[in-house]
């Protein structure tokens, strides 16, 4: 695909339109925006992204319920809870994500933060010293690491996808966009520095896919990891240093049904 400068100009304008603070309140990214500490942002951002399917209003409400069950202080709750405290999570449910899953997530977070200062390290396992991270490898290794605790619930594996499953890994790619992208618009956090915006893969949900196909940014019939790679490769032609900024334009156009 050659660079279509008319398309680039149009999408750049749409990025500017949607990548604004008024995007935050109605999107799951509003959940981590309730916090100022890095660890709380990472934890609530990860949970919000993993739970991000269905109506956005419902997602936000369920995330707020979960945070309330953690006494409004997720990192402190995770690191300092007693077995008795964990009873507050019993009965939680959002779609197929339930209390069995969140209890394992809490166990993983406590294990990880006992050894590392940031959740970014979980995506750098085996690539700690490389200059350019292979994101496909990072996502596959992350899933292995996430389920490295003994006696993890097998049912929980379905909530963490990976390229090895041929998934687009939409939710985790969205979370990585939130943590890694840097600009002055105030939507994405840009609090991670070892992963680079240029290496990210665009989240490929139904809205993004539909609009991307209209613009010829996706040609593959099946929606899988290769589709996400194709989309991102074409977006890199428009901006090699920050291809996933176009997630704002494609998602916004899809949700608002402008086309």
UniProtKB/TrEMBL annotation:
Short name of any one Pfam family annotated for the protein: DUF2400
The protein's matches in InterPro entries, at most eight in alphabetical order, are given as: CHP02757
**Protein name per the record:** TIGR02757 family protein
The superkingdom of the source organism is: Bacteria
- Recall the taxonomic lineage recorded for the source organism: Bacteria, Pseudomonadati, Bacteroidota, Sphingobacteriia, Sphingobacteriales
